Amino acid sequence: MTPAIRVLVAEDQSAVRAGLVLILRSAPDIDVVGEAADGERAVELARELRPDLVLMDVQMPRLDGVSATRQIVAQQMADVLVLTTFDLDEYVFGALRAGAAGFLLKNTEARDLLEAVRTVARGEGIVAPAVTRRLIAEFAAKPVRETAADPAVLDGLTRREREVLSCIGEGLSNAEIAGRLEMAEGTVKTHVSRLLAKLELRSRVQAAVLAQELGI
């Protein structure tokens, strides 16, 4: 029997947090192991409980969700799925740079929340086309980026890895990539892991943004 996905919920609004916990606990394959009302507590509990995933709000007291995400990812305590409304760009971009495994809109339907948790737990990250397009659009709207993507970063990738990266940029899942490129899903996962390591990226979302920026 596959172990349940262990989730830590970090959200400062008690009513919202209770709703998220209720939805997550409705799934037999998901286990809520802890709750945090601020970023500092989220980091403490992630270190103590070592959950598979932290569902992280970006706006929280004591320590914001971006800073908390950065600490949790840097110390490899857990993957982080960020809750966002997309109305504060600096939080979204900050979470992306911090290594968040994905972004989830706060008005997401319950079934989509559960599937997002399962997707991140599988190591795929959340790069739904609508989310990816919004991220890219916001990046493109900025007149000057702190760092511009250099096409030379792709030189170390194999042809197959470039194809997989292109598919990630479109927001395709591993299963969808496998179907398009006619390869086993396990092989796709291997390619994704290797290209992330070669490009020194922390998450699939970062890879999607890079692919879009480079136009591949």
Automatic annotation (TrEMBL):
Domain Response regulatory, residue spans: 6-121
Any GO MF annotation of the entry: DNA binding
What is a biological process (GO) this protein takes part in?
Answer: phosphorelay signal transduction system
Sorted alphabetically, which keywords does the UniProt record give?
A: DNA-binding, Phosphoprotein, Transcription, Transcription regulation
Kindly give the Gene3D superfamilies that the UniProt entry links to this protein. 3.40.50.2300
Under InterPro entries, the record lists: CheY-like_superfamily, NreC/VraR/RcsB-like_REC, Sig_transdc_resp-reg_C-effctor, Sig_transdc_resp-reg_receiver, Tscrpt_reg_LuxR_C, WalR-like
Domain of life assignment: Bacteria
Looking up PROSITE patterns in the UniProt record yields:
HTH_LUXR_1 (PS00622), HTH_LUXR_2 (PS50043), RESPONSE_REGULATORY (PS50110)
List every position bearing 4-aspartylphosphate: D57
According to UniProt, the name of this protein is: DNA-binding response regulator
Could you tell me which residue ranges the HTH luxR-type domain spans?
A: 150-215
Respond yes or no to whether keyword Transcription regulation is given for this record: yes
Q: What is the lineage of its organism?
A: Bacteria, Bacillati, Actinomycetota, Actinomycetes, Kitasatosporales
